[in-house]
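REQUEST
  id: r-88c1
  op: predict_structure
  target: OmpA family protein
  payload:
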Amino acid sequence: MKRTFFTWIIMLLFYGAGAQVNTSPKALGDKAFKNKDYYEAAFYYKKAATGMNLISEKQVPYQPGSKISKKDASNVDQEYVSYQLAESYRLYQNYLEAEPWYYKVLNDNYESQYPLARLWYGVCLRANQHFDEAEKQLQQFVTSYKGDSKNIELARKEIATCRFAREQYKYPALLDLATIKGAFSSNGSDYALVKRDDNYFFTSSRKIKDEKNALNRIYQTKITDGKAQMLNFDDNEPGKNEAEYGAPAFEPSGKRMYITRWFKSGSQTTYAIYKSEWQNGKWGALTKLNNNVNAQGFAAIQPFITGDGKQLYFVSDKPGGSGGKDIWVADLNADGDPVNSRNAGTAINSSFDEEAPYFDSAQKRLIYSSKGFLGLGGYDFFESFNNNGVWATPKNMGYPINSAKDDMYYYPDNTDKNKFYLSSDRQSDCCLELFEAYDKRYFVAGQVLDCVNQKPLLGATVSLKDSLSGNILNKVKIAQSGKYLFNINTKRPYNLVVEKSGYFTKVLPVPLSGRMAKDTLLNADICLQPFEVNKPIVIKNVLYDFNKAGLRPESKAVLDELVKLLRDNPKIKIELSAHTDGIGSDAYNNKLSQERAKACVDYIISRGINKEKIFAKGYGKTRPIAPNTLPNGQDNPEGRQMNRRTEFTILKVE
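RESPONSE
  id: r-88c1
  status: 200
  body:
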């Protein structure tokens, strides 16, 4: 797992200070926790837990049923340290370590002292992909908790997340995802990759020689040389000695860069967006954007410049938003300075946090990260399209683009339309890593034809249907070319529903491979069979043994096709009829044909077809379609064979 340089600094401080100052690990943990230095707090609380013998038998990942040994410290101190250690782990998103400590607090019956322990235990279970148990714990919290309604709201949101995540992990998007190694990877955070031609720019908190802390800096590299070079800026702003830089964005020519700059003073961190011009072979002095973006006393971060260079998307917690950090948009003048700014609106922003916008001007498509909408947990990627100034409801981009942890900083590859980059901490307990993703989505395309004349069936509709939810995802109406086309995004099971009035509807499963085989029910070219009410249709190859009504195995296979037709066309009601040749008495043939028709109907009903949609009728030899004898009076075997038939007739279309 990745660790920042902070770990070693803390260890040195702890052991060095221990010889001179009699300060307990618990007190040091409390101080760090108060200052929101949760990584440091966890370090000290873990030391305190070790001193209380709380560590020795704890297993990670936690196994229910493990026993904790007797402790020397008071139970109150033990549970306090256990809870604070859980909180510290959770607040720097180390859910794997946090989970068993919350469990311990609950298992030791200290829920009354720490009423949120079950909520956070459920959150950790969800983040660690134990969705069933997480939902159980969160439901229990909703039932028993009597405190702030906001916590109930959060628990219900997490329950919805569990249910959504289960489906996403079961039916992932058609993507391949892998970490980027080499110069792009370090023992700190690596994130916010931007590609311009053959140059890659990204942010990293890797340790720099002669610096006591691992600070965020912007790096440039070429994927071929395996080296990362840190960018340097002339910086005369306050806090320059400890200033950090990240999340670069470029206007179209690449001659102007926008970045986030931040520094910490005491317990307060100041964030703002700056720009720098490329001059004389280097990046010039940093210039802070005006208060249209950098409002006094509020943060502005994560700039993105549109493809025409006329707009800046950014993130801020300034007044006028929906709560937390919001996506904002500013118009830029010729010098790249903002002349205004406006909130992207409540369709895009939630009462929670939104971050890291990317806008595709050609598609009018905004991709950004949010904690406020239904997702898998942490920050998830969402996309929304803008139509004449109106944003569509944001759509979660699904797994594996998203994970149970934080997923941010989408950026496409400018040389491969099926490749893009993102940042995620899904494989780390502390840090964002860079990933490259390959889009494996595909198109299903073909023609819809009339089965009789093999011409395009104008006016037919083809729908792409989610066979799990029953929702229609897209629908096209067949025009002169007869063609249809759908984009398949995930491994969820989909159906094509092809229909036209006066024709039998077909419902065909979409193959996972993206190819549809010819001459099967998965034809890319699909033909529909016309029908007329009250006009019989012969079912070929329904065979019986002589003088018997029982169905032969090959007959059942034929009837299965009729079963599918009835499933695909639930609004039709049919008569299934059996007919005989002219040999034998009327009574004999009527009885035999009725039994045969009933045998067919019984089989079809046994396959799940509603008995109200089909009934049996035996006509004996009363409705021949060919002569049983030749004109000379001799037997006509071919004619009798045609008369020994099974038919179905559509009586009604509801």
